[in-house]
Design a protein that fits this description.
It is a single chain. Helices cover about 60% and strands about 0% of the residues. It has helices at about 30, 45-50, 60-70, 70-80, 80-100, 100-105, 110-125, 135-145, 150-160, 170-195, 200-220, 220-225, 235-240, 245-250, 255-275, 290-305, 320-330. The longest helix is centred in the middle third of the chain and has 22 residues, at about 170-195.
């Protein structure tokens, strides 16, 4: 490599899982690149909910919630087929409602009450008796139209509830399990909305969801630091002799960057595994996986700043993201 190559180019993310304490593999090729739904049929209470005062702006509520709290998910949902879009908005709005509970409550007991509300809401939705709450109404329509699997919705709630404790993940596997039960479950439901039942698509969704969970944990680290919290896997921190205090003080030493390198590497490995199913996954499933554009963009940027998790550029929105998502959708790739 030429002497003028930037420093980050010498620290590529690996193409295979790097075992803790083992030597990193040599640079791979990845490193070389420095409408509203019709009301469901029903009777009695169901029709009352679908046409009641709370239903009038329920769809708009979900869209605005996404635009403000999950802009990237909002953009990805816009590129889904028109007949699936409203259901996807409802599903992602449901996820946002759950995700923001932890940051909005001051006591765990209140958070548990909110999670119990959503558990009962899902039960009521599948009993054809949704409450007059915008997200619940739209989610009920999605369930009725696509016969969504209740188990995935409950898994998301259960995992979010278990995560209300302010505890760091003990190891990378614990973080991956959390991502599987939340982000991957969300993708399984999105595939159902698209009418996809395919084992290869499910495998790809599992890996993409795990990559999403890992990247989300990394991206949120500076924010969590301002609240005196650190959730990065403890085993990797211990391996490099890094304490939570190092992150709270925004320490930029090499060992701190090594922690971020190892965690980011695991996200890249999951992306690579997901793309290995590309030829076997039905093309109709590809729109569900557009989030890979966002994940790859972040992994490239953190590589360029030599895994400095606190670098200001990592907190800036990519103005070209909508275009990148559109191009990826047009190319029918993920």
């Amino acid at each position: 490599m030429a002497a003028s190559a930037p420093r980050w180019a010498s620290r590529p993310l690996p193409l295979s899982v790097c075992g803790l304490g083992r030597r990193r593999p040599s640079p791979g090729p990845w490193a070389a690149r420095a409408r509203r739904l019709p009301e469901p049929a029903g009777s009695g209470r169901s029709l009352a909910v679908a046409s009641g005062p709370g239903a009038a702006g329920a769809d708009r509520y979900c869209v605005e919630l996404l635009r403000k709290r999950d802009y990237e998910g909002y953009l990805c949902s816009l590129l889904l087929p028109a007949e699936s879009r409203s259901s996807a908005f409802a599903l992602r709005a449901f996820n946002v409602e759950l995700a923001q509970v932890k940051d909005m409550v001051s006591e765990k007991t209140i958070g548990l009450m909110r999670m119990q509300f959503w558990k009962k809401t899902v039960d009521d939705i599948y009993s054809d008796n949704p409450p007059h709450q915008p997200v619940a109404i739209e989610l009920w329509k999605a369930v009725k139209r696509h016969n969504l699997t209740k188990r995935w919705l409950m898994k998301i709630i259960d995992e979010r509830e278990n995560n209300l404790d302010d505890k760091a993940y003990r190891n990378i596997q614990e973080l991956e399990n959390y991502a599987e039960n939340t982000q991957s479950s969300l993708l399984y439901l999105t595939l159902e909305i698209l009418g996809i039942k395919d084992l290869h698509a499910d495998h790809a969704a599992s890996h993409i969801g795990k990559a999403q969970g890992i990247v989300t944990c990394l991206r949120a680290t500076p924010y969590h630091g301002t609240r005196k919290r650190v959730f990065l896997p403890m085993d990797i921190c211990m391996l490099h002799g890094v304490s939570q205090e190092d992150f709270l003080r925004k320490n930029q030493d090499k060992n701190v960057r090594d922690v971020i390198y190892d965690i980011a590497s695991q996200a890249h490995v999951h992306l690579k595994h997901a793309r290995s199913f590309h030829k076997s996954v039905p093309v109709k499933a590809f729109p569900a996986f557009l989030q890979t554009v966002v994940l790859e963009d972040y992994l490239k940027k953190i590589q360029q700043v030599d895994f400095d998790i606190f670098h200001p550029s990592l907190q800036q929105k990519n103005p070209l993201l909508p275009l990148s998502l559109y191009i990826q959708s047009w190319r029918k790739r993920y």
